Amino acid sequence: MSQHRHPGAPGRAGAVPALPDLPEATVARLPEYLRALHNLAETGHETVSSEGLASAAGVNSAKLRKDLSHLGSYGTRGVGYDVGLLIDQIEYVLGLTQRRAVALVGVGNLGHALAGYDGFVSRGFRIAALFDADTARVGEEINGLVVRHIDELPRVAAAEAIAIGVIATPASAAQAVADQLVAVGVTSILNFAPCVLSVPEGVDLRKVDLAIELQILSFHEHRKASLTALPATGGSALTALPGGLAVTDPQEAIGT
Amino acid sequence: MSQHRHPGAPGRAGAVPALPDLPEATVARLPEYLRALHNLAETGHETVSSEGLASAAGVNSAKLRKDLSHLGSYGTRGVGYDVGLLIDQIEYVLGLTQRRAVALVGVGNLGHALAGYDGFVSRGFRIAALFDADTARVGEEINGLVVRHIDELPRVAAAEAIAIGVIATPASAAQAVADQLVAVGVTSILNFAPCVLSVPEGVDLRKVDLAIELQILSFHEHRKASLTALPATGGSALTALPGGLAVTDPQEAIGT
DNA sequence: TTGTGTGAAATATTTCACAGCC
DNA sequence: GGCTGTGAAATATTTCACACAA
What we know:
CATH superfamily of the largest domain in chain A: NAD(P)-binding Rossmann-like Domain
CATH topology of the largest domain in chain A: Rossmann fold
Strand content of chain A: 15-25%
Oligomer: homodimer
């Protein structure tokens, strides 16, 4: 691509957004770059190389450059990237120039913590409403917000222009809540309940399952243990393991 | 592969683990299958087809079959999978046959919620210890566990055989905590702090960043808004968008 | 000379489609 | 007849390596 093309300049200088459809893997990394850039900006850096930003974000520099190249050319060859400019660009692409309103449904153990989580507010969002189905919890105030009954969702959603719904209910309630969110026009949902939700075409759904993360780590623990368990089988302990030798996690070595 | 090969039967009938090194994408889905299988078992199903399990887990059946084929052949052609057998097999591969001990560091807002999260306990883990650096929080009891000072980590880790460390501290403390966990022999870490951690080779690190999930959703909101914003540009509104037409999120349509 | 931007190569993952077994 | 297991094709993602701009 010739010359500098800045698709959708943040300053809206008459140009057009034309959000390029980024690879999903790239989208998932942009927030990480953004955080690293904010750190750099706070420590007085005005410029950063792909190498520098990549290591701050925990990726390799080739990947970073490829990712950023999808946004257009915001670097200067021989110099690096302008930190401020890149922050603006990424925030623009991620749609963070407007502070989206988030509705959190389910104010139990986890929901309570999410309601008080600074990161949402400090990173571009506004928790606009809290809901729960349990009347015992309705009325409680968390972080300056009053918990409302879920039946008030339609009214509140219209008033607050809710853009994103976060579900932190028990799994048994999650699908019903998702349906209600969809019904009031919410098109992005983040689900913390450990279950599969189905939503209509056009609604984006992401999920965070805390236990799954631990189970993935458990797999790798198991794997590491099963490898080190056979210290010397003659070399290729990594391949097939013909037969014999019952080794079911002797007791993973911890500490000295 | 000829006949039924059951690499590493759970019942340890003298056979060998021989954990096949599964594709990472497959590993990440196994916990989801496991949850779906438990649901099926509870509702009395003894057998399930790839189609049925796939839809319960929110994936397509081809992917499911490919994933399961990496574990060996546990299905019966023309019939489906034996629910109980598959549960055993997946639990075995994920290393859930032993209840791994988890240490949670950082008992603030989020950590507090994690300490009380049922899902960890119900899905194969044991929260063995809670730590914090803030002496004001040390001694507090959460869910039957007393919060200890982080300096006690070495002693406790040795006593409890901690396998996995969960970091729920502020970002500023996270790297130091990670270092301490690594120092006492922990080789798997789940990080909730919004920062990049570096750990030595051989230590597995996963990360959950709640704000990042919202930012990814925000991107898609932005994208949807920018597409629907040009209702009829003559057909190919999806391609480049030559120039002109300043469209910076008019106001995303919410509600009716 | 430095360091971005990017084609092209290498990997990883998903999907297709069907042979083979129950 | 139904459904798994799996090669082969299609996509997606990562990495390489270098032309070229500043």
